[in-house]
Amino acid sequence: MLEVKDLAVAFGSIAPLSGVTFSLAKGETLGIVGESGSGKSLTAMSIMGLLPMSDGRVTSGSIVFDGQELTTLNESDYCKLRGGRIGLITQNPMTSLDPLKKIGTQVDAVAILHLGMAKKKARANTVDILHTLRIPEPALICERYPHQMSGGMKQRIVIAMALAADPDLLIADEPTTALDVTVQAQIIRLLDDLVKQRGLALLLITHDMSVVAQTCDRVVVMYAGRAIEQGPVLDIFDNPQHPYTQALVGCIPRDLKDGEKLTSIPGTVPTVLNYPEGCKFHPRCTRAQNICTTVQPELDRNGDSAVACHFAGASI
Amino acid sequence: MSNLLEVRNLAKKFTSSGGAFRKARTMHAVNDVSFDLPEGRVIGVVGESGCGKSTLARLILRLIEPSAGTLHFNGEDLRAKTPAQMRDLRAHMQMVFQDPYSAIDPRYTIERAVLEPFLVQGVKPIDGAAAQVEALLNMVGLNPGLADRFPHQLSGGQKQRVGIARALALRPSLLVLDEPTASLDVSVQAQIIGLLEQLRDELGLTYLFISHDLSLVRYFCDEILVMYLGRVVEVLPDTNGQACHPYTITLMNSTFVPDPKHRRVIRPLEGEVPSPFDLKPGCAFADRCPQVSEICRAETPELSKHSGHLVACHNPI
């Protein structure tokens, strides 16, 4: 459904993203995890063709969606895809909705624009979708304004907008970060059901490893603008090969035995202006050797998994 | 072990002013909260947004005035203190805030920010200002060379360390931590939690740790208070204890376990937290509770012992 190969993005002379490769099939949930500044959201924005700032551009690599190359697509064709066949759910539902328009009008607009529905039919479609999202009294909700709703409800409306044109791919960029745990559970459950029932492909971008553990089939781990490891979710958690993934998994407060401590990674994530030479993780890595300071390791594919490290392997 | 902090029936009401067409409304942000915090222990407070966690933290330091109840710190009645006496006492009880971005004045250098508590309290740093700043920055694992930087030159984790250094400047015995890692990445969170553990052992600190992250609280705390709409609904004396309150159980079931081997069907709580204004009588959780019975809508349950710990529920599980 979606195939991203060796994607690199630059803003002028700054290159925040390079060597990002992954693929996503129908009915699959792929998680992209990483810390702030690792390039997760930038990857999503590149796929949507929404790179911020006028000089941001894809410098190399390809993004193929359902057989169609996206990096060379012109703007008007992109507009048909966006919101049509690719739906986007953003992090902050408070800013994704127009405060001056009724909920119904906003969701209708998607179907009117992309599916060419008449107003009445679009409204019926909207009510239908709100109903599947388990929103009580959908017809009534359509007449409300965003400020009259809670955060969890607004996020559902944003999901409804993403679904209104019956997309094939859904990109969810930190969909539950702004929400409470109980609401988060409701929303994630909803997304999970949608993938199973409609055969959607879901690209879930998050920094929350527990959300990944509970929902994703496969995971891509990003660090400093590169995809450094990917594989089935079980392998990433139980048998990670990259030292960064191992450290990241160790940072999660799981049910530790008495006296056992959380491990932490010394140092801080480099910013795009001071990316180190060679492997970008080497200043913080316990396995770093001379070669790591000069040569950038390439993604080494092994079946369904891939890792970019000179000394990849289970932890000692 | 003596109790460092004793809280009894603490409450805070906020009243909105009425107008020509509007009735004044009362919101019970914190309602009848009692607990003891023994020296050296770490108590965690969990709950969803709006349950009164942060209000509770501010009430304990008397940053806002309680509407009712008593507060004893080291045996002294805090509510009887004058503002000046309270300020002196706050040298012993400090707070670390959720948002390290807004907790530090952007125009202060790190050195000035760390020295601010001494200035406020009118205390001279023991071996001179520069040495004190160096010692404090070292203590929280920061390079003392950062002293002449400004907050915007630091990362979120570094700023939170500065926040902790400021709180520790006057050697307090109680630290109230209001979601200290909520805005940080997991790897930075692990660093901050590691630092807090180390400081507790070295300086004999007592923590009140406020968080919405149940797995973090279970890892870090000795005892957990679960709050719902301003009330403590359950006190879990040890973090592996079996919960009895239907709300605690739902909260635990909604929490994702970071382990793909233990996937479970999550039965999320339907409905939403009711408005805290003008609460109906009875248990606040009644409308969403699977165990609800007639008495729940009539009488507010009090905290009482059930299978070894305190629960406020008519039909505990």
Give a description of the structure:
The complex is a heterodimer of chains A (316) and B (317). Chain A is built from 12 helices and 12 strands. The mean pLDDT of chain A is 87. Chain A has a single domain, classed as Rossmann fold. Chain A has an 8-stranded mixed beta sheet with strand order 6-7-8-3-9-10-12-11, with helices on both faces. In chain A, strands 2-1-4-5 form a 4-stranded antiparallel beta sheet, with helices on one face. In chain A, 34% of the residues lie in helices and 23% in strands. In chain A, a hairpin with a 2-residue loop joins strand 11 and strand 12. Chain A is of the alpha/beta class and 316 residues long. With 317 residues, chain B is of the alpha/beta class. Chain B folds into 2 domains: 220 residues, Rossmann fold; 68 residues, no CATH class. Chain B has a 6-stranded mixed beta sheet with strand order 6-7-8-3-9-10, sandwiched between helices. Chain B has a 4-stranded antiparallel beta sheet with strand order 2-1-4-5. A two-stranded antiparallel ribbon of chain B has the order 11-12. In chain B, helix 4 packs parallel to helix 6. Chain B is globular, with a radius of gyration of 21 Å. The mean pLDDT of chain B is 87. The chains are: A alpha/beta (316), B alpha/beta (317). At the A-B interface, helix 8, helix 9, helix 10 and helix 11 of A face helix 6, helix 7, helix 8 and helix 9 of B.
CATH class of the largest domain in chain B: Alpha Beta
CATH class of chain A: Alpha Beta
Please describe the biggest sheet of chain A, giving its number of strands, its sense, and whether it closes into a barrel: 8 strands, mixed
How many distinct domains of chain A? 1
Mean pLDDT of chain B: 87
